[in-house]
Amino acid sequence: xxxxxxxxxxxxxxxxxxxxxxxxxxxxxxxxxxxxxxxxxxxxxxxxxxxxxxxxxxxxxxxxxxxxxxxxxxxxxxxxxxxxxxxxxxxxxxxxxxxxxxxxxxxxxxxxxxxxxxxxxxxxxxxxxxxxxxxxxxxxxxxxxxxxxxxxxxxxxxxxxxxxxxxxxxxxxxxxxxxxxxxxxxxxxxxxxxxxxxxxxxxxxxxxxxxxxxxxxxxxxxxxxxxxxxxxxxxxxxxxxxxxxxxxxxxxxxxxxxxxxxxxxxxxxxxxxxxxxxxxxxxxx
Amino acid sequence: xxxxxxxxxxxxxxxxxxxxxxxxxxxxxxxxxxxxxxxxxxxxxxxxxxxxxxxxxxxxxxxxxxxxxxxxxxxxxxxxxxxxxxxxxxxxxxxxxxxxxxxxxxxxxxxxxxxxxxxxxxxxxxxxxxxxxxxxxxxxxxxxxxxxxxxxxxxxxxxxxxxxxxxxxxxxxxxxxxxxxxxxxxxxxxxxxxxxxxxxxxxxxxxxx
Lengths: 285, 209
Prior knowledge:
The structure holds 2 protein chains of 2 kinds.
Chain A: H1 12-40, H2 64-67, H3 69-78, H4 88-100, H5 114-129, H6 142-145, H7 154-166, H8 185-197, H9 206-210, E1 215-222, E2 225-233, H10 240-248, H11 254-260, E3 276-279
Helix pairs in contact in A: 4-5, 10-11
Chain B: H1 2-20, E1 33-37, E2 40-44, E3 80-82, H2 84-95, E4 100-104, H3 108-113, E5 119-121, H4 134-140, E6 144-146, E7 149-151, E8 157-161, H5 169-179, E9 187-190, H6 193-199
Parallel strand pairs in B: 3-9, 4-5, 4-8, 8-9
Antiparallel strand pairs in B: 1-2, 6-7
């Protein structure tokens, strides 16, 4: 009892006051320290790098990837040899960037020119950052194994397409997503074949169009002239590209329909079964 | 005992007060700024430690020239040169809305060590004519190819940077873009680059700010 060293004659009240005062200071000190730590956040690291937004591709470009499959492989093989200023380090580092972006590593092809290979890897990395499929390698790719329209059955071509899509070798344009969210392979193949054969698009006759399911044609007299309005109700399995093919004979012209229905469609892949779309008369080429 | 505690509490209050008030602002009116980029919130502020120094990699004064030569203020005719506040504004408005891209033109190893938040790594080599795959990138930027010529009417706005006034990667990339026909008024050049961005203690990606 003596150890505390307090003056017993000083009175209990004073001791109690002092103790309370002490506790208040301690409590105050702690809360200030905690507040300081909260604002300092010593362990806080920076915001992780946010992926930059992908630019809105020009509407006409959205249909590009499919028509370009043959062109890309042709370009790859036609590239003149590069002056090799490469290091395998750079390729490794590029691959780690690719990995960070969640993209499959592109292994260097043993026979390929090193400089060219490095450029392909770097370009693919850039494209991955923009959300676009990488450039396929030059060796033994399923897309290059057999050109389209070489006497293959539709089923074989579909199977090839499926593999290429699964492996990310082909970017599926949004216009070829069906109302169910699947890939509209039929329209894709038709479009590819048309591009490969160099055919020009021809719109089907009005009679053929008018006879189709979901098609609605209204003729209105306006200020002395006759205006024709066409509407289409989205059917099961339709993609915007398929609808464009139905009306214009060319899936790439989906932009006309997309632009005319922007109020209904947040994106070219956002069509829904039962939606009633305005089909504009074709303007320009 | 009471006196010690009292002064300790007072010291804590004094030291934590300026931190609470964020004394190192970007401008007098802007302590920090946050905006969404591709679904993620990016916050840019300045380092709040008054004793913080730039890291050794960026304190070098005498890199060999070539290649590390002093660059002109303008990268090319018609290409605007901008500073940090314009970069932040570009991120906040153009990149955030998906109508533009901030391009880090350095090599992937530099990019992976830290960059401006929201930037996309497009090494300068990939934009130069020697890249056989350059068209893929131009197309991704919104360019439309008609035979041998390109239309960039719908192409995205670009703001390019590299390591700073001693780095020619972004000027080279800009010349590459112009060579391909990319319109000069869709290109901007941040000459200060990572050197000046870091010097001002502005937020970087990666841990080593």
